[in-house]
Amino acid sequence: MTGSRKNRKVDGFMKKAKKWKEEFEQLRNTILDCEELTEEVKWMHPCYTFENKNVVLIHGFKDYCALLFHKGALLKDPHGILIQQTENVQAARQIRFTNLQEIIEMESILKDYIHEAIEVEKAGLEVNLKKTEEYSIPEELQTTFDEIPELKAAFEALTPGRQRAYILYFSKAKQSKTRESRIEKYKQNILDGKGLND
User: Fold this and answer.
1) Which structural domain range is residue 46 located in?
2) SS3 for 85?
3) Per 3-state DSSP, what percentage of the chain is helix, strand, and coil (rounded to 5)?
4) Which of the chain's ends, N or C, has fewer CB atoms near its CB within 10 Å?
């Protein structure tokens, strides 16, 4: 199978890895054992694809390393090991590890999850992402819209992704005062048709 060949860029990634080196190698071998997947580097991490669709990615953080399933929300998860990184992550799910032994002990379970993730791709399944209008608009933003109708019009003219980014950013603030100051700060950006990071 061509899918089980090692990619030289991933070899380079493995050589440079200071933390989680053994864990990454073990995860890589587990994934490559499943064949069918093509090894690539995306977002500076080893990523495994099926017919150019992202299936699973290996990445490491300070306290853990993880397998990230791009459509993890669709996996059955009989062992209850899939983790949603933050509440705003809709499709992806992680399985986290803190040492090599955990990965070795879970190898057959991991392969089951990887095979299921491949089947999800083969079946062409998609995660139903929440639409922008399903996010609740913070009341401070609603109040500002009522006061400044042109701001509401400018906001509604933004792309759904930009609207979502603003809604999530404004909503994240715990205090009403902070939400108000965030809205105030970005009012002109919205009127100019700009996104949060433009």
Assistant:
1) 2-122
2) coil
3) 50, 15, 35
4) C
Amino acid of residue 100: L
Same domain, yes or no: 117 and 186: no
CB 32 within 8 A of CB 4: yes
The H-or-E segment that residue 51 falls in is: none
Instruction: Indicate the average pLDDT of the chain.
Output: 91
Question: Domain tally for the chain?
Answer: 2
Q: Is the pLDDT of residue 41 over 70?
A: yes
pLDDT in tens, 113-129: 999 999 999 999 998 87
Is residue 187 domain-resident? Answer: yes
Gap between the Cα atoms of 57 and 168, Å rounded: 25
Cα separation, 186 vs 195, whole angstroms: 9
Query: With pLDDT > 70 as the criterion, what percentage of the chain qualifies?
Result: 96
| Domain annotation covers residue 196 | no
| Contact by Cβ (8 Å): 190, 154 | yes
Q: What is the mean pLDDT of residues 22-45?
A: 95
Give the count of beta carbons closer than 10 Å to the beta carbon of residue 11.
Answer: 13
